[in-house]
Amino acid sequence: MSIQLTDISKRFGDALVVDKMSLSISDGELFVLLGGSGSGKSTILRMIAGLLNPDQGSVFISGREVTQLPPQARNTGLVFQNYSLFRHMTVADNIEFGLRIRGIDVVRRRRKAEELLDLVGLGGLGERFPRQLSGGQQQRIALARALAYEPSVLLLDEPFGALDVRIRAQLRESLKDIQRHLKITTILVTHDQDEAFELGDRIAVLETGHLIEVGTPEQLYHRPKTEIVASFIGGGNVLVGRAKEGRISLGQVTLPFPKEAPPHEDGTPVRILFRPEDMVQQVDEFWVEHPVHPLGKGKFLKRRFAGAQQRLRFELEGLKGARSVTPSAAQGQRFAHIEVVEPSTSNAIFKVPHEDELRWIGAHRFHVLEPAGFKILACIDGSENDPALLDLSAHIAKGGRGHLTLLRIGRSSEKPVVLKNQVDGHLRRLEPQGYPVRSLVRIGSRFQQILYETQEGSAETVVVHRPRALASKYPILGNTVTRLLHVAQAPVLIAQPGRAEIKTILVGTAGGEPGRHNVLISGRLARQTGAVVHVFHCLSTEATEEDQARIERHLSNAVATLDALGVQCSSSFGRGEVVQAVLDEAQTRNADLISIGAPSPDYSPFFGATDVSTEMCLRVTNKHILLVPLPR
Asked: 516-529 and 545-564 helices cross at what angle (nearest 10)?
C-alpha cells in the first residue's frame, strides 16, 4: 500500500474532528475524500502531509511510518485551493523553488520546469508572473510546482473550488490525464460529488470525522450500504419501512427483499434507495407484465427543470407510515414524497402532469441498505438525573455509530427558550463525542411528542427515567411508558443513575417464541455496545422434564441467534419465583442491564396488581431495565 492510516484521531479543543480513522490507499490510485464542511477531510490531508500531528494513530507512506516526521521528510506534494504561488517570482521560478532548496543545479531545474509546463499545457509561459495568468492557469502552475521534485504522493485540497464551472471541468480532465501518465498516488479532497465521480478510482465518504463508506463511484452510487451515503450521493429517494414476514412493508405497499439484500430481523426498520432515474410515472395503472414495482398513486406537486433532465415530485398517500429520509419531510408533511427524473425533451415537458393530478408511480429497481445502528431518543426532564441518562444514551449511540436525539418536553406554562438553554447545555457536552446528535424542545403531551418521534423514524429505542408511578401506592409502569410499548411498539430503556456503560446484559425470557424478539433486540444492543449477553429462563417448581427440554431448546436457539449476530453469549435456567430468580441471576452475573418482555397490552393495573415487568421495575433500583414489546 502507498498510504496507510491506522486509527488516527484529531481534536481541536473539545471538538473531535477525526475519530479513529483507518484507510489503505494503493500505489498509483487516485483516491477521493468526499464530505461536507466539518467532515474532517482537509484535516486528514494535513495529517498525511505533516502539517498537523494526529493525537493518536499512525501514518505510513510507502511502507515507512512518517507520523512524527516533518513535511519535508515525507516526499509529498501539496496543492491548495488558493494556489499559494510566490507573486514576486516568475512561473518558472515558482516551479523550480522546491528543487532549488534541495540543491538541484540550475540546468536540471530549468529542464524540469519546461517539462512540467508542457505537461500541464502551459509551455512557453515560464517567464510570466502569476498576476499575468488566469485562475485556471495559476492552479496548473501550483500543480506543476508540487510535481517538480517527483513526490511519491500528491495531495490536493479542493484545488478547483475557486474556479468557474467551465475551467473546473477542463482542469479535472487535465489532472486525470497527468495522474495516469505519471502513475502517482493522489489524494483529492472535495465536497463536489461530480468531481469525485469523474476523478476518483475510489471514494471515501466522511461525516463528522467518521469514515462512513469506501468504494468505487459505481458502488457508492448504485449499491451504497448506509443511509448517509444514499442520501448524500446522487439525490436519491430514501424511504424507511419495516421488515414484515420476509417482505418490506412501506405503508400499504409491500415489496420483496432482493436476493442481494442484507438480512433484516422481522419488525426492524428497512432503508430503501430508489434512484430517481429508476422511477416511472404514467397515467394508467401498471399491469402484471410491466417490469416495475408499483408504489401506488401519487399526487403531482412540482417540477424542477435541470437542463437535460426534469425532476418531478409526487406525494404518495399509500406510503403513509413509511418515513421519507430523502426528499426530507417538511413540517406538517403527512405522506412520503418521491422524485422522478425524466429527460426534459419537448415531448416530456408537454406530458408534465397538472398540479394535484394523480399518476401511477413505480420503480424499475431499488436497493436495500445495510441495517443501521440504534437511533436513540433520550427523554430528559430537567432533573438532577438527566446527565446519567444522557451518558447511558451516548454510550449506546457512540458504540454503534448511532444517532442520538435529546428531547425535552415542557408544559404549556414553561418557556421554550428556558428549556432550549437547558438542552443546549447538555448538547455542548455531547457534541465533541463524534457521533450525530441533535436536540428538540417540544411543548405538549409527553406521550404524543415521544410517539411522534418514534413514528417518524427518529428513534428505535426510547430512554427514559424511572417512572414516578412506580413509587405510588398502586405501582404501574406509567402511562407514557405503557402506551409507548403498546402503541409505538418501541423498546423502552428505563435508565438508573450510576451506570453509564453497558458491559453485561441479562435477557430474561419466556419459553419458546415469545422471547425471540427480546433476544434479537438485546443482541443488537449488545452488538452496538460490545456487551456480553446471558440468556436466563426461570422454570416453575412444577415444571416437568418435557418443560425443561423445551426450555433448553429455546435457550440453545437464543444463543445461536446471538452468536450469528457476533455477540459473546451464554445461557442458563433456574427454578423458583420469577422476579427473584431473575434478580439473583443479574446479581450473580453483575449485569448492568436486564432485558425483559413488555407487559401484555390487556394488562390492567386495578387493585394494585402487578405483572412481572412492573414488579421487576419496582424492585430493581441499581440496574437499567430494557422493556421489549412483542411484535404485532
From this structure: 40
pLDDT at 514: 45
The three three-digit cell numbers of residue 360, written as one number: 401511477
Tell me: do 400 and 359 sit in the same domain.
no
135-162 per-position pLDDT tens digit: 888 888 888 888 887 889 989 888 877 6
pLDDT at 474 over 60: no
E strand or H helix at 19? strand 15-25
Q: Please identify which residue in the block is written with the cell numbers 446471558.
A: 534
Helix (H, G, I), strand (E, B) or coil at 571: strand
Whether 42 and 97 map to the same domain: the answer is yes
Domain of residue 347: give its range: 234-368
The reply to whether 181 and 52 lie within a common domain is yes
Same-domain status, 157 and 283: no
Q: Return the closest-CA partner of residue 208 out of 430, 35, 384.
A: 35
Q: Give the number of domains in the chain.
A: 4
Q: What is the CATH number of the domain that holds 150?
A: 3.40.50.300
CA dihedral of 81, 82, 86, 92, whole degrees rounded to 10: 50
Which residues touch 115 (CB under 8 Å, ≥6 apart)? none
Q: Which domain CATH number covers 339?
A: 2.40.50.100
Measured between alpha carbons, how far is 195 from 188 in angstroms, rounded to an integer?
10
In terms of DSSP bridges, do strands 593-597 and 504-508 run parallel, antiparallel, or are they unpaired? parallel
Residue 272 CA: distances (Å) to CA of 15, 195, 231, 265, 608: 33, 26, 11, 15, 46
> Nearest-CA neighbor of 255 among 190, 245, 263?
245
Say if residues 320 and 232 touch (Cβ distance below 8 Å): no
End-to-end CA distance of the chain: 51
Q: Domain for residue 308, yes or no?
A: yes
- Cα angle value 297/224/460 (rounded, 5°): 70
DSSP string, 583-604: HHHHHHHT-SEEEEEPPPTT--
Global pTM value? 0.64
CB 585 within 8 A of CB 555: no
Reference 229, options 36, 427, 503; nearest CA is 36
